Amino acid sequence: MSEAHLDTAAHMIAHGGNLHEAAQRYGIPWDAWIDLSTGINPHGFPVPPVPAGAWRRLPEDDDGFAACAARYYGAPDAQHVLPVAGSQAAIRALPALLPVLLPAQASAARVAIAPLTYGEYAPAFAQAGHVVVPLDIASGTLPEDAMHAVVVNPDNPTASLVGRETLLHWHAQLAARGGTLIVDEAFADAFDDPQANSLADTTGRSGLVVLRSPGKFFGLAGARCGFALAAPPLLATLRARLGAWTVSGPARHAVTHAFADTERQRAMRTRLDGESARLGALLDSHGLAPRTTPLFAWVVHARAARLQDALASRAVWTRRFESPASLRFGLPASEDEWRRFKTALGQAMQELE
After folding, report:
1. Is the peptide bond before 115 cis (omega within 30 degrees of 0)?
2. Burial (CB count <10 Å: 0-12, 13-18, 19+), residue 57
3. Which CATH number fits domain 52-260: 3.40.50.720, 3.30.1490.20, 3.30.450.20, 3.40.640.10?
4. Which of 1, 22, 194, 228 is the 20 to 30 A CA-CA neighbour of 79?
C-alpha cells in the first residue's frame, strides 16, 4: 500500500457474498452453489416472530437496545454504545470525524492500516483526506508518524490476532499524539472467550473506538446492525453525522433476542470450534496450510486464481485476494455441502497438478 491518497471513485470494493455474480459468470443456477465466500456463520440464530409494533413504529433510542448491547459486549454502559446500520456505516463516517491535519503542521494525518485487511477502511480514510500507511501487525510496533490506526481483530482475511496488551499500548501511543485507535472486532464473538482480547470494556478512554457486529457469529448479516463503542462525546458526534433511526425495529428485535440466548451462544461456539478444525484439516490434507478462525480459513497459494476458478466450475464459491495471492474459505452449511466441497476440492487440486 503506497503512502498516498487512494482514488476509489472508479471502482467498487470487492466483497464476498456476490453469489448472483458468480452464478451469471459460470452459468450455474444460484441455488446450486455452496457459498464459502463470506465468514458469516451458516447456522444463523433463529429470529422469533417480529411484533407488529416493530414494523409500525419508528425505532426509539431509549428502548433499551444500547443497554442490551453494552451488557453483551462488556462496555461500561449504554452511553458508550451507538447502534449503527452495520459497522459499515461507522467505517464510512468515522474518518471524517477524526483529525486530518497533524498538530501544528500542514501535512495530512497518517493512518496505519494493514496492507491486507477488511477492504473498506483504507478507501474511507483516504476519501476523508488522511494518508494511509502500512501497519505491520507482526512487528508489534506502530509507524512513528501514524496519528491513527485501524486493527481488525481477528483480521479478515489473514486470521491474525493482536493481544489486548499490545492494543492498549498502541492506544496509549496514539492518544498521546491526539489520535485514535479503531479496533474492529466483528469476528470476536465466535471465540470461546470473546472478551479475552476485546477492548470493549475500555471504551471510556478518549481516542479509542471498538466496532462490533452481530452479523458474523449470529448469522444476522441481513439485519444490517452493528455497534460503535466509544466515549460519549465521540458517539454524540457520530450520532449527529448518521442521523436518526439507523437500525430498524425488526433488526433490534432479532439482535436483542440473539444476545439473550446465552445457551445457544455456548453451544454454537463449541460447534464452530469443531467445524473450524474440520475445515482446517481438510485444507491441510491438500497441503494448503490454512490459518483459521472459528468462522473462516485463509490460504496463501501461488495459483489462488486458478484454484478459485476450478472450485467455481464445480459450484463452490470462495473469496480471492490479490496480494498475497490467497483464498478465504467459510464454513459449509450442511453435511451435504461438506461432502460436495470435499469432492470439489479434491478434483480442483488434481486439476492444478
Report:
1. no
2. exposed
3. 3.40.640.10
4. 194
Check pLDDT > 60 for residue 8.
no
> Is the pTM for the entire model greater than 0.90?
yes
The backbone torsions φ and ψ at residue 212, rounded to the nearest 5 degrees and listed phi first, read -125, 155
Q: What is the mean pLDDT of residues 175-184?
A: 96
CA 142 remoteness from chain centre: 21
What the block records as the C-alpha cell of 140 is 508489534
Q: How far is CA 246 from CA 184, 190, 237, 252, 318, in A?
A: 19, 25, 14, 10, 31
Average pLDDT over residues 104-116: 84
Can you give the three-state secondary structure of 14-44, one letter per residue?
CCCCCHHHHHHHHCCCHHHCEECCCCCCCCC
Domain assignments of the chain as residue spans, ordered by start: 19-44+263-352, 52-260
Q: Which CATH code of 3.30.420.10, 2.60.40.1190, 3.90.1150.10, 3.40.50.880 fits the domain covering 19-44+263-352?
A: 3.90.1150.10
User: What is the model's pLDDT at position 3?
Assistant: 38
Which of 166, 241, 227, 174 minimizes the C-alpha distance to 205? 174
Q: Output the pLDDT for position 4.
A: 36
Pick the range with the lowest mean pLDDT from 4-18, 67-81, 83-97. 4-18
How far apart, in whole angstroms, are the C-alpha atoms of residue 297 and residue 327?
8
Helices (H), the chain: 19-26, 52-56, 65-73, 87-93, 121-127, 164-176, 232-242, 249-260, 262-285, 304-312, 335-352
